[in-house]
From TrEMBL:
Gene3D superfamilies: Chorismate mutase. Its EC number is 5.4.99.5. It holds the Pfam family CM_2. The keyword Isomerase applies. One of its GO terms (biological process) is salicylic acid biosynthetic process. This is chorismate mutase. InterPro entries: Chorismate_II_sf, Chorismate_mutase-related, CM_dom_sf, CM_II_prokaryot, Isochorismate_pyruvate-lyase. It is an enzyme of class 5 (isomerase). One of its GO terms (molecular function) is carbon-oxygen lyase activity.
Length: 105
């Protein structure tokens, strides 16, 4: 798994160049993590034998509750992160449907 590239810690930034370099490094790390997450969607599409199993509302609710708890524990705004994850989960579901369909056509 990818680590965040060395950069100045946010509390030590002295100028916008350092801030932007840090943000860019975090963005690259997030894309690498999302690639891994979508790899799990590939695995799910391969493993699930029934197309109806792709959308699992109970699991979606669990994921969103986990994000809300993690945001709260980290002192981050819960609602925007839950909204962001809702979009991520919906995109993941659409991706998994496409993979599921492609692998069985």
């Amino acid at each position: 798994m990818s680590e965040i590239e060395p950069s100045v810690d946010p509390q030590n930034c002295r100028n916008m160049t350092e801030v932007r370099a840090g943000v860019d490094a975090v963005d690259r790390a997030l894309v690498a993590l999302l690639a891994r997450r979508f790899g799990y969607m590939d695995a799910a599409a391969r493993i699930k034998t029934d197309r109806a199993a792709v959308r699992d509302e109970a699991r979606k609710a669990e994921v969103l509750a986990n994000v809300q708890k993690a945001a709260q524990a980290a002192g981050l705004p819960e609602e925007p992160l839950v909204q962001l994850w809702d979009q991520l989960v919906e995109s993941s579901i659409a991706y998994e449907f496409a993979k599921w369909d492609a692998s069985r056509s």
